User: Fold this.
Amino acid sequence: MWVSSLREGGPKGSNPVSKGIIEINLEGNGLDDTFAKDLAYFLKYDTWLRSLNLKNNNITDEGVKELLDLLEKNISLFTLDLRGNPGFNVKISQQFLSKLIFNMQNFKNNKRIERIEEIKEEEKSLSEFYKNSDNLNLPSHNSF
Assistant:
């Protein structure tokens, strides 16, 4: 039994970088609009899930609309496969694609910003280190 929830930890020896479920495959499970609505509700503010496969289920226009609305709030989902569902068609697939591409671009931009912040912190640490380097009795660059 896990001491922490799925979002806050895992069993001993688990990957400390992953803190949540990133992929769910529910293909061909006979899932319907009620399930799609419930799932959309719970995933609206999820920040871990990247890929959701709901291919070949019984999700109609109503459930597909709920999942499309989900992408208004959830910006971490990159793939959502609804092929083979009665409510999924080419027209609506273009709307999904647009939102998923936005999510990918947003993620990429945020990762750049996070990396820039990491570099700034590293530079600050190095700067502090070199300010205190006179305590290390290192030869000056003039002594070469």
The first strand starts at residue 23 and ends at 25. Residues 23-127 form a domain with the Leucine-rich repeat, LRR (right-handed beta-alpha superhelix) fold (CATH 3.80.10.10). The two ends are 62 Å apart (CA to CA). Confidence is low (pLDDT under 50) at residues 1-16.
